[in-house]
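Anyone have tokens for Phosphonate transport system permease protein? Sequence:
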Amino acid sequence: MKARADRRRLGRRSMLLGFALATLAALWLADLRLLAPDPWQTLGRIGTGLLSPSFADLPALAEAAALTLAFAFCGVFGGAAAGLVLAPFYHLRPLRHLCIAVRAIHELFWALLLMQVTGLSPLTGVLAIGLPYAGIFAKVFAEYLEEADPAAARALPRGSPRLSALVFARLPLALREMRSYVLYRLECGLRSSAVLGFIGLPTLGFLLESYFRQAHYGEAAAVLAVFLALILPLRLWMRWPLVPVYVAVSAWLLSRVETPPTGAGVLWRFVTHDIVPAPLRSGGWATLTGWLDFAGWLWRLGVEQIAPGVWTTMILSQVALALAALIAVVGFPLIVPRVTGRAGALAGHALLVLGRSIPEYMLAFILLQLFGPSMLPAILALAVHNGAIMAHLMGRQAEGLCADLRPDAPRGSVLWGYELLPRQFASFLALCLYRWEIIVRDSAIFGLIGVATLGFHVDAAIQTLRIDRAVALLLAMGGLTLAIDTLSTHLRRRMRLAHAPGAKQVLHEE
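Reply: yep, here.
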């Protein structure tokens, strides 16, 4: 047993050393330049606007806020319904791989792809949220059902149908955890819904981008204030008996949005022509020459776009993960009363809630105005958002640890450095590995603001109507996400991090 524990400690130290070396290499390769001409002047103007928000265009704000809620409710609860139907069959390998594939692509890219078929319509936004969320819900709901106490199912009469065992024995036991997870995903869905405005859908993100591009920072501050007013008290105004009303009103609001026509036969053209690689169109798939041309097409795409995009994505995500880990270590004691006091813990909670509530893409867009189109805005946005989530989870665990301490135990920084941090080290490593795959997935979206990740090439391909290239790049993105997830899972199992105290609670915080 001692030898096994020593090997585990050695493995964790080796992982930390490898992580540190990878971070140093990524810092050396990352583009962290300040490319804005006068960042301090811009910061002053933005700061003035944030301190004096302007609600002059209140009707537009109200409409965008209502549609942000509508997209989120329809997308999240549509995804939850689909995930609940798929969950009992998640053990089937083809279905599991399909769910992994749909959730590996960010909502923004789903929206860009779907716009080629459904246009700039409400259906685009609902599907862009609902499709990846269906894959996530299927996985999480399947795990909740699997972990339910089997005693209730065994109490049913022998020969009872599987559906009866599921509905009357397992589902009631898992319902509480499912509802809690849906509530968490609704918070994520609100962030996703707001961000969809950056590609033209009429949510709060659309107004924010418009005001920033016109340097109307007071109006932009009002948009941020309205968004925070929606998401921060979510657990207060969200009532489960009202969910059918919320969804029905949301569907009615979306049905009233004017949608530009897309033309007849667009779906058929998309499936039979647009997504087919160019060398295989017009009968090329039936000839050897067509397949040879396809091999050359794929090779050039891999060398010119996929490989550089993956390289940039990994550099950006590595620096962001390291900074997020630092924020988590420094930030989690801020919400522990025995470290910062009651007033300090309240302020710490407010700070972390603010950090994790603002969507990464929205924060990166704001920072882009200050620093210019380098990697810096994306790194800071990812680090702040993910670091706040990690700090919040570690802080909750630390509060539980403090409940078991003696009244005369140390307080303040001594308690943090000598008691809480060492006892949470294993769960901290697990958290970093859990968030790694998410950060890599989200890094791609910053290609839409000019960072040369895989998302940059996806956006360029869609803008030039080379949908076949966009699909190939999205498949590469999904493959990268799957590879990181597989490596993360392997490392957690090898070092038994999944069994660390407190690590289980973060498994589904994806």
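The chain has two domains: 8-37+294-510, 39-274.
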